[in-house]
Amino acid sequence: MKGRLVLLHGWGADGDDLRPLGNALNARMASTLEVVSLEAPTLQAQGSGRQWYGLFPADWDAVPAAVSQLQQRLLGLQGGEAALKNTVLFGFSQGGAMAIHAGCQLPLAGVISCSGYPHPIWNPPSEHPPVLLLHGTEDAVVPFEAMEQLQEKLDSELCSTHSFRNGHTIPEETMQPIQNFIRSVLTKPL
User: Fold this and answer.
1) What per-residue confidence (pLDDT) applies to 103?
2) What is the pLDDT of residues 134-185, one digit of tens each?
3) N or C: the chain end with fewer CB closer than 10 Å?
């Protein structure tokens, strides 16, 4: 199994934020993953870091263009559209919302959203890649109910969830479910 893991950071972070997670997953999977960490296109208005679209206040009108731009970047990675069937898209927080919105419309191997949320205008296509949703039950930044809202919109046969007792983070206990999901979607027959 050789696959690609594409990482999408959260609001206010940068492309290096999730790189340790990708490297740890790659090590756990015996270096079978190419890890690509994308950086959001614009600087956030408050402080340092980057954003996929303005969030405080939320600029929902910018979401369609941001999603389209992300999809073009994914298609522009080495191997183009053909490589998407061996690609898992992982996003955290705002990156999780982007992963779900952009990824469910592409022929990816799978999509993982940790502490993500549905964009107000988002409705998934009836056929979408397998999805893993992870969320902390004590998340004060993106409430746990956001995972339930995502789950309600997705095909129940293609969506699995993992809740953890924590806040807005990616705790160590999520590594095994993430690894299991990646392994399962990358080893499915075509």
Assistant:
1) 98
2) 999 999 999 999 999 999 999 999 999 999 999 999 999 999 999 999 999 9
3) C
- Report d(CA 29, CA 22) in Å as an integer: 11
**Which residues, 6 or more positions from 85, have their beta carbon under 8 angstroms from its beta carbon?**
107, 108, 109, 190
- Looking at residue 65, what DSSP letter applies? H
Alpha-carbon Rg for the chain in angstroms: 15
The number of residues making up the chain comes to: 190
Query: Is the omega angle on the peptide bond into residue 57 within 30 degrees of 0, that is, cis?
Result: yes
Collapsing DSSP to helix, strand or coil, 173 comes out as helix
Distance CA 75, CA 96 (A): 18
Place of tokens 């303005």: 54
DSSP 16-27: TTTHHHHHHHHH
Asked if 52 and 11 touch (Cβ cutoff 8 Å), the reply is yes
Do 8 and 38 form a contact (C-beta atoms < 8 A)?
A: yes
- Beta partners for 135? 163
pLDDT per residue over 63-102, tens digit each? 999 999 999 999 999 999 999 999 999 999 999 999 999 9
Is the torsion defined by CA of 138, 147, 20, 9 positive or negative?
Answer: negative
